Amino acid sequence: MYVTSRDERRHRSETAILAAARELFAEVGFERATIRAVAAQANVDPALVMQHFGNKEALFAAATQWPGEHQRILDATPDSLAAAALDDLLAHFEEADDRGGAVALMRSCLTHPTAMQVMRDQVMCERQAAVAGKLTGEDAELRAGLFAACMVGLGMARYLIRLEPVASASQEDLHRLMEPVLKALTE
Amino acid sequence: MYVTSRDERRHRSETAILAAARELFAEVGFERATIRAVAAQANVDPALVMQHFGNKEALFAAATQWPGEHQRILDATPDSLAAAALDDLLAHFEEADDRGGAVALMRSCLTHPTAMQVMRDQVMCERQAAVAGKLTGEDAELRAGLFAACMVGLGMARYLIRLEPVASASQEDLHRLMEPVLKALTE
DNA sequence: GTCTATATCTTGATAGAC
DNA sequence: GTCTATCAAGATATAGAC
């Protein structure tokens, strides 16, 4: 009498491995997170990790997908851009189901080639483009780029470097203090 | 008839190794920069690198010292804080003799334990404290921390991730667009 | 001071038993 | 599907000749 079919067990292993990988990649980055450590944390055999994902790069890619579209920004009016972008950031890092994946991507985005490419092309460039689309006047692209840079700086300080008191500040305080900052770039 | 004494040759090797190390650490980070590659780039034997610096950590520490004090910020008036901090950043990354060392530190500050500690304690915290000392009113520390976060974001986007058009913007444009941004935090 | 040779360790990845 | 055993490659670091 089997309570777990083969497919169920496979799926269970896979999610356990993915969760462990996200956590380790987020903590120590791509290079220092070993397949063995991921397997140990997921309570499976190291060879099983390879069986499921093929190689470490593929595991990393599966574990670090950026949560996605900048819908909040695209829906915003020029005046609500700053608030929308902040909501976007906070949602990705503090509310998303796979929020560890966002930290994992950022953790390695300075030292891992494909992580850097994803970070630049899919995160920063897209955000920059979404913002630039709402701007009028001179230097729209550059202002949008600086906007994206400030957002990245905030994310790094709060979630990666954990600089205090930025790391423990309330979402309300961040909105209150950062919105005027970002609005200096959008108007 | 010796034109190079032992001390001279030693000094010459050491500076060549340091320059090569700075360059490689800046390019690919601590993990992916191997002693062998550093030695090859400096045209010396790998064992010589060990002889001079003992181990890879010590080499990294020697190659990545942050250029130093935030004198410009400490000398600034509250009103010139933003301009002073920008000058400080631009000087560290575009004019300092060992400017590669600043990139090297930043490159690894998310994945290397001591690089992260240096970045947080000696770069961000000090900058935050220097800024906070000039601020009055509510949330001085948090505002100074967000100030430091924006500066880090700008540095990462411009020098590490090379997001365009931020990476190629002129110093004048950066001052013109970023000063109002930072001033939203200092007044 | 510099280099050759190598010890030692750790990694990602594979082969095959069960 | 899972695990045991192992490989091959690459790393840091060391010992000793010159």
Task: Give me some keywords for this one.
Arc Repressor Mutant, subunit A; DNA-binding; Tetracycline Repressor, domain 2; mainly alpha; 2 domains; elongated
What does this structure look like?
Two copies of one chain form a homodimer. Chain A is mostly helical. Chain A has two domains: 6-63, Orthogonal Bundle (Arc Repressor Mutant, subunit A); 71-186, Tetracycline Repressor, domain 2. Helix content of chain A is 73%, strand content 0%. Chain A is built from ten helices and no strands. In chain A, helix 1 (6-32) crosses helix 4. Chain A is elongated. The termini of chain A are far apart. Chain A binds a DNA duplex (18 and 18 nucleotides) through residues 6, 9-10, 13, 34-36, 44-48, 50-51, 55-56.
Number of strands of chain A: 0
The geometry of chain A reads as elongated
Oligomer: homodimer
β-sheet strand percentage of chain A: under 5%
Largest interface: A-B, 50 and 50 residues
Largest sheet of chain A: none
Highest CATH level, the class of the largest domain in chain A: Mainly Alpha
Rg calculated over all Cα atoms of chain A = 19 Å
Figure out the total of helices of chain A: 10
Helix content of chain A: over 70%
Whole-number average pLDDT of chain A?
92
Counted up, domains of chain A total 2
- State the end-to-end CA separation of chain A: 67 Å
